[in-house]
Amino acid sequence: MKTTLRCFTPMIFLALVGLVAGCGGDDSEPGGAAGSAGSGGSGGSGGAGGDGGGTSDAADMKIASSTGAWNVYRDPYADGRASPIADTMMGSADAFALGGGKMRVKLTVSALPANRPFGSHIHKLACEDTKAGGHYQNNPAPDGGANDPAFANAANEVWLDFVTDASGAASKETTVDFVPRTGQAKSVVIHDMLTMDGGLAGAKLACINMPF
Ligand SMILES: [Cu+2]
Q1: For residues 96 and 36, what is the distance between their CA atoms, to the nearest angstrom?
Q2: Neighbours of 153 (CB within 10 A)
Q3: pLDDT per position as a tens digit, 192-204
Q4: Residue 1 CA, distance from chain mean position
Q5: Model pTM greater than 0.70?
Q6: In Å, what is the CA distance from 54 to each residue of 82, 102, 138?
Q7: 189 Cα: distance to centroid of ligand 1 (angstroms)
Q8: Contact (CB, 8 A) for 205 and 72
Q9: CA of residue 45 to ligand 1 center, whole Å
Q10: Residue among 205, 170, 212 nearest 187 (CA)
Q11: Burial class (CB in 10 A: 0-12, 13-18, 19+), 152
């Protein structure tokens, strides 16, 4: 009788508290709960494994990506002629630090006119700010010298010229021996012509922001 009471009383108390424990079957629920926690833990370590995969790319780290949609500039020739680029163009750009101060930039575009050359560069300003301004230069030219070939060249700027294929798509990668200074390179611009000596490439046709 005494034993029964001793057992019964804690059972009521524990039931009120909301726990299942006591005189029998006290190892079922808590054990199950612990098992669930264990499963969650292994899920977490799966995520950690994914992070590990990223860490193995540490020498090839993404440092900038294009954001938003392409800005296709209106009246690019300032004479009323239509742009050769439609508003429906697509694409993106990414920049990777390779270690040793080098950077690889990849530009991918589509829905452009087929089999056509374009110039392209990383520019200093955002697309909406003075049509992205001038080209980013690792060693900045003195005032008025931005088109001096000593500064406006493929080693001191980031040139991404490309020729579209029969479907109007293109992909271009270039590697340079520098990484842009934070806040001083903000976009990728597509121009009307392949880049010539001194960095000139004709009208600015389209732009996508890629802030460094
Ligand atoms: Cu440009």
Answers
A1: 40
A2: 15
A3: 999 999 999 999 9
A4: 74
A5: yes
A6: 44, 19, 28
A7: 5
A8: yes
A9: 46
A10: 212
A11: buried
Q: Distance from the CA of 42 to the center of ligand 1, in angstroms?
A: 50
Confidence of residue 60 (pLDDT cuts 50, 70, 90): confident
The rounded Å distance from CA 204 to ligand 1 centre is: 7
Give residue 38's pLDDT: 35
- One-letter amino acid identity for 121? H
Q: Report how far ligand 1's centroid is from the alpha carbon of 121 (Å).
A: 4
CA distances from 165 to 5, 117, 201 (A): 87, 10, 20
Higher pLDDT, 24 or 80: 80
- What is the CA(19)–ligand 1 centre distance, in A? 69
What is the whole-number distance in angstroms between the Cα of residue 205 and the centre of ligand 1? 10
Locus of tokens 């003195």 = 142
